[in-house]
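Researcher: Good morning. I'm working through a list of sequences from a screen, and I'd like to move beyond sequence-only analysis. For each chain I'm collecting a predicted structure so we can compare shapes side by side. This is the next one on the list. No need for commentary yet; just the structure.
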Amino acid sequence: MLTPFLPALAIAFLALPLFLAGIWASEVTGRHLGVPDHGAIVIDEIAAFLPLAALASQSPWLQALAFALFRLFDIWKPFPIRQFEARVKGGLGVMLDDVLAAGYAYAAFAALVIAHHHFASAP
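Model: Good morning. Structure tokens for this chain:
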């Protein structure tokens, strides 16, 4: 966790330069390994998950929930993630599908936190 060192918003903003560096790094690594989205490339997951991890704060339970949701959507690849993955090639394609999965995870995470807060505070 980076939260002892940086505020959550700063951590979330670290994702942007990491995303841009990831486009280049994924492109070069995929070309050298001969596999465009090789399993050894993980900068895509890190850059995509960073803002969600910052949102989940220092709570281990919220961090675990955010990570589980991210992995769920990253593996499942609901519409339009799979379509983008098939059409957008190179480093941008490697990075983009994880960012889209993180967007789904963010929406699900927010809905679950709001629902929990609503039902926990109901009389």
